[in-house]
Model the fold of this input.
Amino acid sequence: MLIVPPGKAAHFILRKDTGGPGASGERAVTSYLTSHVLPTYARYDLAFERGEGAWLIATDGARYLDFTSGVAVSALGHAHPRLLAALTDQAGKVWHVSNYFRIPEGERLAERLCSLTFADRVFFCNSGAEAIECAIKTARKYHAAAGRPERFRVITFEGAFHGRTLAALAAGGQKKYLEGFGPVVEGFDQVPFGDLEATKRAIGPDTGAILVEPLQGEGGVHMPPIHFLRGLRKLCDERGMLLVLDEIQTGFGRTGELFAYQRTGIAPDIMAVAKALGAGFPMGACLATEQAAKGMTAGTHGSTFGGNPLAMAVGNAVLDVVQEPDFLDHVKKVAALFKQRLAEIKDRYPTVIGEVRGEGLMLGIRAVVPNADLIDALRAEKLLAIPAGDNVVRLYPPLIVSEAEISDGVQRLARACAAIAQREPRTAQAAQ
Ligand SMILES: *Cc1c(COP(=O)(O)O)cnc(C)c1O
Done:
């Protein structure tokens, strides 16, 4: 039991089993705990004072190249002048009015999101998990409103991540996140990601929807086979089910398309977005077709903060930027360069990097050494990266990153790999 005197900060050490043959066994991860913050995160002992584009400036003045984008959130980098202007301009007018009133900026944002996607209706909320929650409720209510309330079950996929509310956790199905939190929300059936046959077998008379990430992020930057999403669409059409996409991580240009589904030639019935929608201002949204949304009538769902004028002003400004004609071309161009350079580094350091995968600027490298070791080595080179499942290190630069910054990041990665290969040549080889 950790007891910290009020008002005091404390360091504590987490013992982390890095696992795997040749791994150095237990390794100390230093976490920083402010006295009153619930210690649910193992944080790095590093804090930032400000940011500029792809850079974060630490409290000690050191400049870090940010290839995390706050986990795919800060898509336009830090302190983007257009976002700053939109937020401060709105802050001087009105912050919050509640959803008892019309919010013109929200109506405008909803209309723009619909014109850019398959959707006809948008519900605004404050986070990804809330967007998923709304998506699940919308799917269930669609069937209930049509006189089929028994069709509440949703098929989800192994390795999925949909957020931390009770229903989102049940949908994600990760035991380590569900344990100790009481009965798991009923109605989710998990099958292997990318497996159409298993999906087909899992469909029962009570199945009403399929919920899937077009590219799994937290699970380890997993791309399903090309025909997978199309196959799911077909299954949904044949069996009267709704296809629900979780584009919370992939949305708003991360994969090189505005939304990842737009590359597949199919469209969902419902889609959850968040993260880059607010580019750092907390917001989420659930998009749906008129048909899929037909059960969501007055009083069926709500949110106090959802869609408030500050969030709506920022969301519209984000769309202004990502809709500029060259924006996605830029993402595709730097992404191609990045992926190619990463492949070169992988060839040079096969004892450190096993595989490069992903799409657009949603890239992951599967480490041969423990991914935490590689992330530590990158941080020593002042390059910020984040872990994911399957021993993957995620490299998520802001979408406004320049070619020069990509090259800079790749050089830092090369130096980190060289340091690891030199320090632990035997460990690295043994772990292969
Ligand atoms: C981040 C994420 C979520 C959860 O979003 P929160 O804002 O943390 O609730 C859900 N699904 C996916 C795919 C995500 O990447």
User: Anything to note?
Assistant: The longest helix spans residues 327-348.
